[in-house]
Structure formats: C-alpha cells, structure tokens
Design goal:
The chain is mainly α. The chain has 2 domains: 51 residues, no CATH class; 195 residues, no CATH class. Helix 5 packs across helix 7 and helix 8 packs antiparallel against helix 9. The longest helix is centred in the middle third of the chain and has 42 residues. The protein is elongated.
C-alpha cells in the first residue's frame, strides 16, 4: 500500500489533497482517478478539476493544463472596409479594355479583308487607313491596360487587407503591399500574383468551392501576354500577322471576361462574409436574447 500511495503522490495530474483524502481511509478516490487527464479534453471541466472540455483554449503540456496562445494578427491588420466600390472600378476598366481589344480585332479583320480583295497588294490609302486604325486601337489598349492594372491592384490590396478582419488572416504568407509589389518583380510575377489571388480565393470562397476558374484566368492571362510578345516579334521580323494578332487578342478578351467574373465573385463572397460577422443575431420572438 505504501508503494501505491507513493506512486499517486508523485503523479502530477493527481491533486495532493485527493491523495491524502483517498488513502487516509484506506481507499482511493475512483472518481478522481477517472478524471485524471491523459490528453486534452480527457474529462469534463468542474471546479477544482484539472481536466477541461475539448476546445482550442487549453492544451496539456505533460504536467498541467496551460492556455493555448491566441493567434497573433498581422501588424498590417486593419478594420474591414468594403471592396465593392473598387470592384466597380475594376469591372468598368475591364469593360473599357474589352472595347479596345474589340477595336484591335476589328482592325485585324479589316486588314485581312483588304489583303484578300487586293491580292495582298493594298493601295497606299488602304495601308494608311489600316495603320491609323491600328495605332488608335493600340493606344486605347495601352491606356486600358494601365487603368485596369491600377484598378485591379487597388481592389486586390483591399481584398487582402480585409482577411484578418474577417477572421481568415491567420497564417497569411504575404501582405497587402506585397500583393501589389509582386506584380512588378521580374520573373516572380509569373506565379506570385496568382499565389496571392489563390490565397484570397481560398480564404474567401465558401467551403468546397474549387479554384478552377481562378486557374483558368491566370492561364489565359499568361497566354495572352506571351502571345502578344510572339506577335510583336513576328511583326518586327516579317511584317504584321493579322490572323495571329486577332487570335491573341481574342485570348485577351476571354481573359478579361473571366477576370470580371473572378472579381465579382470574390467581392460578393467577402461582402457576404462581412455581413454575417457584423449583423447581430435576432432572438426568436418570445424568448430572451442571448
């Protein structure tokens, strides 16, 4: 009996008072022994007990229950601000860009038609008209790309900054500033902006929502970018290739349409999540609040 008493006396989870009480009468406290924890959540919490219900506020360190450290918010965390106004700006910019790409495609079709009717030998006036139309359309595309880029970066900054305020900011791998800066880092812009957008998607989309749409947008974006480089290179060496240029511009149109869908969905999901968090719950009629 002495050895048994010494065993329980030196077992950390067992309160010393219960050991003395249990063995002073020659019997061990079975209830206390059953409540001794071996892992987190091993018993039901009650005053004076060393056990706690299973939750995320306590953990067993081998000798005692200790509070779990609360997640630390990023230093750049800020109160929630709706991204809806910036999303409108982005969608409007993309719509204007679609018009500019449409003008470029129209110019390519016009040039192909002139070449077909003249046997590849357009007149001087026809060439001048084609060059003028293409220059105007290209200028509109350039302006549209710049405005859309600024609008998209503003929207992405706001979306990323809202994540901690909506309770989905633990373990973020970047920052709102980083979400914008990565677009301008050589080589890294090929995948880092997509990783940032995927992080926003995963922490904003409803549970079970796949990310195929986001991957499609990024693939189309890269295809249009590199396709444009190929067209420029061919045009410099061999003259304009209107058919290839029209195909690349069509890719850019599809990419812009998918981008609009992505922006609208992410914005709607984040605004909806914010409403769920900020809207107080209504108590049923006839029952006290709480």
């Amino acid at each position: 009996m002495k050895a048994r008493g010494e065993f329980f006396a030196y077992w950390p989870p067992c309160p010393a008072s219960s050991v003395r009480t249990g063995f002073s009468t020659g019997t061990a406290s079975a209830g206390a022994a059953r409540s001794l924890p071996t892992e987190r959540g091993a018993g039901t919490a009650r005053p004076g007990s060393r056990t706690h219900p299973t939750d995320d506020q306590w953990r067993w360190d081998g000798t005692a229950w200790v509070p779990t450290a609360a997640p630390v918010a990023p230093t750049w965390a800020a109160p929630y601000a709706s991204p809806a106004d910036r999303a409108v700006f982005v969608v409007t910019a993309f719509a204007a860009l679609l018009v500019a790409y449409g003008l470029l495609i129209g110019n390519d079709v016009l040039a192909l038609g002139i070449a077909a009717t003249t046997g590849g030998q357009p007149t001087t006036d026809q060439q001048a008209l084609s060059v003028l139309a293409r220059s105007a359309a290209s200028a509109l595309v350039l302006i549209g790309v710049l405005v859309t880029g600024v609008a998209f970066c503003m929207w992405e900054y706001r979306m990323y900054r809202n994540l901690p305020a909506l309770g989905t900011g633990v373990g973020l791998r970047s920052s709102p500033t980083g979400a914008v800066v990565w677009w301008f880092v050589p080589l890294a812009w090929l995948w880092m902006p997509y990783r940032i957008m995927r992080e926003i998607w995963q922490r904003t989309a409803p549970a079970g929502t796949g990310g195929n749409l986001l991957g499609m947008w990024w693939a189309l974006f890269l295809a249009g970018y590199f396709g444009g480089g190929v067209v420029l290179r061919i045009g410099t060496l061999n003259g304009p290739n209107y058919a290839l240029d029209a195909a690349v511009n069509a890719l850019n149109v599809i990419a812009a349409v998918v981008a609009i869908i992505v922006v609208r969905r992410l914005t709607a999901w984040q605004v909806g999540r914010a409403k769920l968090i900020t809207t107080p719950r209504q108590s049923p009629i006839g029952s006290p609040p709480g």
